[in-house]
Specification:
alpha+beta
């Protein structure tokens, strides 16, 4: 499986709500297959739920279209979701190949940008309202609010 836990939950919900669709036929295949078959099924499922622009979709495409790069893990069957939200593939060998692919100068920049999880970051900043300073200079406050932000990075070739 090469999707995030959240994507997997969305896929499960989508298949349950739409039992007659193609995704419901593909759904059972993903848990008993090789990595190649899992990537192929996950790619189709991600497309069905409108996630064609996700790094996971791009990574699944990369595995399918560049088998020679992934030959050492093609028989691997992932038992977890396969993708950590901020880091990429959860399996160590798969993660190593993924990082090598991102560094590959032959990989087109448009594909690299789609596949790279570090091209975007979501986070929160804490704002201390009415902070007070203690004797050791550390500020603290009882009223804390959060601002969410989204930063997008672009590779420059």
């Amino acid at each position: 499986m090469v999707v995030t836990v959240k994507q997997w939950e969305e896929i499960v919900a989508y298949v349950r709500k739409n039992p007659g669709i193609r995704a419901s036929e593909l759904f059972p295949l993903r848990n008993v297959s090789s990595l190649l078959q899992q990537c192929d099924v996950d790619r189709e499922l991600l497309r069905e739920i409108g996630m064609r622009e996700s790094p996971q979709y791009a990574f699944n495409c990369d595995v399918i279209h560049n088998l020679e790069k992934y030959k050492e893990v093609l028989t691997l069957v992932l038992t977890d979701s396969g993708w950590e939200e901020d880091h990429g593939p959860s399996h160590p060998t798969l993660w190593k190949i993924y990082r090598q692919r991102l560094a590959d100068p032959k990989l087109k920049a448009e594909y690299r940008d789609k596949m790279d999880v570090t091209s975007s970051f979501r986070g929160r900043t804490a704002i201390l309202n009415n902070p007070e300073e203690t004797d050791n200079g550390v500020a603290f406050g009882m009223d804390i609010s959060f601002d969410e932000y989204f930063i997008e990075f672009h590779h420059v070739s």
